[in-house]
Write a structure and sequence with these properties.
The structure holds 3 protein chains of 3 kinds. By secondary structure, chain A is an alpha/beta fold. Chain A contains 5 helices and 7 strands. Classes of the chains: A alpha/beta, B alpha+beta, C mainly alpha.
Chain lengths: ~180, ~650, ~160
């Protein structure tokens, strides 16, 4: 029986150490958030997606090679998307004024009412093409979790950046500047 | 506005009162114990009643605020709404964090008061005194939570005259009235055996006394927890529209973990009662069960893990984590300190014996609990160590728990026929023959009607085997004792086993043999699926102030019309699908309306699930409840001084 | 009567039971048929994928818009009929990342989630065997005075408690 008495404290210490580690993990986890903009597609060729725009044109991402492409995933019922919109308008205006990069912005709309989207754009400005994604092929190909999301694709057709949540004209502009600077 | 501020003031006052009462209760009881002052010791009961009174007052004030729509309170602004129907408005109290903690406090102080009342003839007992102290400490903690970080009586911004109401999912089925309170009764009830276990450790009276005293409390808590979990599954089935009852969601796991350790305890406690063994183990199980309720609350109420059930992040996380740490560290130290007195005399002679089976049972239940805990917290571990997001869900839990579950069924078949001490091969051959035949018959029947797959088939075979053993026990007992053969722990326990078996078979069957198909139907179309015809007769729009529902009318087999619906909750802007279920003994037909539908549409996407044996889940749940009640009745009493080796079987 | 019963329950009877069990089990396992409608395949695949926006829920359970999109894609891939279930899961994973899987990987730290329960099970079984061995050894020894005192105390306490 003396054997068992010696085991007792060891077991107790082992249990306390284990529990201590466990509690530490919980305490560390409690302080974090999981917001990341990671994607397995970063620095990989962009998925080949084809669809049509609201204006009736064909949208084929692979044909857009040669210019920077910004895809903005949008929904007219999503409040952050609407809040983000003026920034996109500002971004496009700034790019048009500058004109050196030749950036093309596309809004991609999945699972939404087309009339509502048209109405929103009519009221809030924005004359860039709106791409239909009725069968969610584009959203799934890019792994879009939650709109708004904004993706940047390089002139060589490589996915270089993903933003989840609202972006600003400033961030978008600065990112593009940096990327294109690096490329040049 | 006067009435409004009154609610906040009285509610907060009541919580403060409860807090102080618990504090005084702790002080006076400890003083009474240490000074041998019986008068002080006896007064602890009054503090228990007073704490319950304070909690009840706070609860009633909160209900009053919700019912009278007092939108001056932040909590009512969050969960209240002028348009919520009375019933769901009443249940709105426990539809968010602060209110659910208030309900916890009410139930906890209720248990404390009930313990004080039940043991009033033994108020001088130091063991009871310490148990009261522990319960006061736990109550104090929860009063503190509702006083500080999760204050339900906080005053909200002024000028608010209406709120969104509870989450739409919490206001479209009657079960929200019952599932949370019943679950809490079980969850919180485990505080009682925990308090007595700690008291036994402190007083050093580590015999079987505290076990026997809390036997029924444990049993009832277990029963409520079981019922609560099953009602939760039922709610999920009737409301969520994905046709399942269990998703291994962190909150579900949080309720399942104490159930597993509690069930292990209910079994291993028999070995201690009978043989005086496994003392440390039983104490550990009781303490683990209680600390798992706190851990589960931390995991699901602090925002570390998100889930459909999780309430928005509050400030309670660090509090719960600290409390959990205190409990487990104090418990380990206490057990270590009392280690010398916990040495159990005696040994188990043979693994093939009743006590051997209970040991195996405990290993399985602990392993099960470990797997569930691991799967629940593993994403946190990965995130802490590698800063990477990982999701652990159903496929992991299914794969890991299936073998454990099947082994449990097997053990359930063998254990009830085993005698204490030692079993011979002959006894096993003799007693297990007809149960084994039943198992094989169940398997044969399942195969003949066309079932396949090794896991469900094994579940049916082992289920039949285990049912045979349980029935054998009940049959022998009733032959011997008449109606008394149904009551008592051994016999009631077999009814519980039957309930578990029925549920296992139903889960295995509905998990493996669900048929589903989606149909796009024009008005007037009829489709056939799995031997039933479904006719789509059109969409009906129904609106009330809370929601507008679009119901698809589907006639099944030319009989009654079922109406799966999609409802838009106006204030929350949420779109909720509501399934419609035709229940049957063989299978349920579960219909959902899919996609975006508009009132003027002439076609609809209807998804049909054919789910076998779902009704038997609820029937099994009923058996579990019945068995629990039967177990709580005293069966054939054994004289306490009778030698432990004298088994009931021995007298047959 | 008793002898007939006894004889049924002895070895031959059990052999018959075992034989019937094995035969039916083998027949049942042999005809494992899997999903019978495309929808069931879609359901099965979407049960293996995590909803990207809601922790812990599968795409099958979730009603979130990302889940609905993934479900549509899975439906399309299933009806195209070119990929196996595993390949469909892989396709989705390649755009959403590995946190779309509902299971830990089998390499690196993740493997711990798979291995640890097995290790615990093995340790528990070995522990039980050792404990039983020791008990069997001690079983032959008679109760010490100390043990008898404990038994006596326990009985007295039980008497007082009742």
């Amino acid at each position: 029986m003396s054997e068992r008495r010696r085991i007792g404290p060891i077991v107790a210490v082992a249990i306390i150490v284990l529990l201590g580690g466990f509690i530490t993990v919980l305490a560390v986890a409690a302080g974090r958030s999981t917001e990341t903009a990671d994607s397995p597609l970063i620095m990989k060729p962009a998925p080949a997606v084809v669809s049509t725009t609201y204006d009736g044109d064909t949208f084929d991402l692979s044909r857009r090679r040669g210019s920077w492409v910004v895809l903005n995933f949008f929904n007219s019922t999503c409040v952050p998307c609407k809040r983000e919109h003026p920034e996109l308008v500002k971004f496009v205006e700034a790019q048009q004024a500058d004109g050196t990069l030749g950036v093309e912005l596309f809004t991609v709309v999945n699972d939404d009412d087309e009339d509502a989207v048209r109405k929103f754009f009519a009221e809030n400005g924005g004359d860039w093409p709106i791409v239909r994604d009725d069968d969610s092929q584009i959203s799934v190909a890019f792994g879009v979790a939650k709109v708004p999301e904004t993706w940047i694709i390089s002139p060589t057709g490589v996915v270089v950046e993903r933003f989840t949540g609202q972006v600003t004209a400033e961030i978008l502009g600065a990112t593009l500047e940096m990327m294109s600077g690096g490329a040049a | 506005m006067l009435g409004a501020s009154l609610n906040a003031a009285v509610g907060r006052g009541a919580i403060l009162l409860g807090l102080l009462v618990c504090l005084f209760g702790i002080g006076i009881t400890i003083a009474g114990i240490r000074q041998g002052n019986l008068k002080a010791l006896r007064s602890s009961a009054y503090y228990a009643y007073a704490a319950f009174g304070a909690a009840l007052l706070a609860f009633v004030i909160m209900e009053r605020a919700i019912i009278t729509r007092d939108f001056s309170l932040a909590y009512v602004q969050q969960v209240g709404s002028r348009d919520t129907p009375a019933l769901y408005n009443f249940a709105a109290l426990w539809s968010a964090l602060e209110g659910s903690l208030l309900m916890w406090v009410l139930i906890l102080t209720g248990f404390t008061a009930a313990v004080a009342r039940k043991f009033r003839s033994r108020r001088d007992d130091v063991l009871l005194g310490w148990a009261m102290v522990v319960m006061f400490v736990v109550s104090l903690f929860f009063f503190l939570l509702t006083f500080g970080p999760a204050n339900p009586f906080a005053v909200g911004p002024t000028g608010v005259t209406d709120g969104p109401g509870p989450n739409p999912l919490l206001q479209n089925h009657i079960l929200v009235m019952f599932h949370p309170p019943i679950l809490y009764l079980g969850y919180v009830g485990f505080t009682v055996p925990f308090a007595f276990a700690v008291a036994a450790l402190i007083t050093g009276r580590l015999g079987e006394g505290w076990l026997l005293e809390t036997r029924r409390w444990t049993l009832y808590s277990w029963g409520f927890l079981t019922l609560g979990i099953i009602l939760g599954g039922w709610w999920s089935y009737e409301v969520l529209g994905w046709s399942g009852v269990w998703a291994w969601d962190p909150v579900e796991n949080a309720s399942f973990l104490p159930w597993l350790t509690g069930t292990a305890y209910l079994h291993s406690v028999l070995v201690q009662e009978r043989r005086g063994m496994l003392r440390v183990w039983n104490l550990s199980l009781v303490i683990a069960t209680f600390s798992l309720t706190i851990l589960g609350t931390f995991l699901t109420r602090s925002g570390v893990i998100n889930s459909v059930h999780a309430f928005s992040e509050g400030q309670v996380g660090p509090w719960l984590l600290v409390f959990f740490s205190i409990i487990v560290i104090a418990a380990v130290l206490l057990i270590g300190w009392r280690g010398d007195r916990l040495r159990s005399p005696g040994s188990i002679d043979s693994p093939i014996s009743r006590e051997g089976a209970f040991l195996a049972n405990n290993v399985l239940f602990s392993l099960f609990a470990f797997v569930v805990l691991l799967g629940t917290v593993f994403p946190l571990v990965v995130e802490a160590l590698q800063d990477r997001r990982l999701v652990v869900g159903q496929p992991f839990f299914d794969r890991m728990t299936k073998p454990i579950g099947l082994t449990m069924l097997f053990l359930m078949a063998i254990a009830p026929v085993l005698p204490w001490r030692k079993a011979s091969g002959e006894i096993l051959r003799d007693r297990l023959f007809w149960p084994a035949c039943l198992g094989v018959a169940a398997l044969a029947y399942a195969v003949i009607i066309g079932n396949d797959g090794w896991a469900p088939l094994l579940a049916f075979a082992l289920g039949g085997f285990a049912a045979g053993s349980a029935l054998r026990q009940v049959a022998l007992a009733t032959r011997r004792q008449g109606w008394r053969g149904f009551v008592g722990r051994a016999n009631g326990g077999m009814i519980v086993h039957l309930g578990v078996i029925v549920i296992s078979v139903a889960l295995a069957s509905s998990g493996a043999y669900t048929r589903s198909q989606e149909f796009v139907m024009e008005v007037g179309d009829t489709v056939e699926f799995s031997g039933h015809t479904f006719t789509f007769e059109g969409l009906v729009l129904e609106s009330d102030p809370v929601k507008s529902s679009l119901k698809a009318q589907v006639r099944i087999d030319g009989g009654p019309v079922y109406e799966p619906a999609r409802s838009k909750y106006i204030k929350q802007g949420m779109d909720i699908g509501t399934p419609s279920v035709k229940t049957g003994f063989r299978h349920d037909l579960y219909l959902t309306l899919e996609g975006n539908v508009r009132p003027d549409d002439t076609e609809a996407r209807i998804k049909v699930f054919v789910k076998p044996l779902i009704l038997w889940l609820w029937i099994g749940g009923g058996l579990l409840g019945l068995g629990t009640v039967l177990s709580a009745f005293p069966g054939k009493r054994r004289r306490p001084e009778a030698p432990v080796s004298e088994g009931l079987e021995a007298r047959v | 009567m008793t002898t007939v019963r006894k004889r049924i329950k002895s070895a031959p009877g059990w052999l018959v039971v075992l034989f019937v069990f094995v035969v039916f089990l083998v027949v049942g396992i042999q005809r494992d048929s899997g999903p019978s409608t495309p929808q069931e395949r879609i359901d099965a695949v979407s049960q293996r994928l995590a909803c990207p926006t809601c922790d812990g829920e599968s795409v099958f359970e979730s009603r979130g818009s990302a889940s609905v999109s993934i479900k549509k894609e899975v439906a399309r891939l299933v009806s195209a009929g070119q990929l196996t279930d595993d390949e469909i899961v892989k396709t989705i994973e390649s755009s959403f990342g590995e946190d779309v899987l509902l299971v830990p990987r089998s390499t690196g730290l993740d493997a711990v989630a798979w291995a640890l329960p097995v290790a615990v099970a093995v340790v528990a079984v070995v522990g039980l065997v050792i404990v039983f061995r020791r008990w069997r050894r001690e079983g032959s020894v008679h109760a010490s005075v100390d043990d008898e005192r404990i038994v006596f105390e326990a009985m007295r306490e039980a008497q007082r408690d009742s």
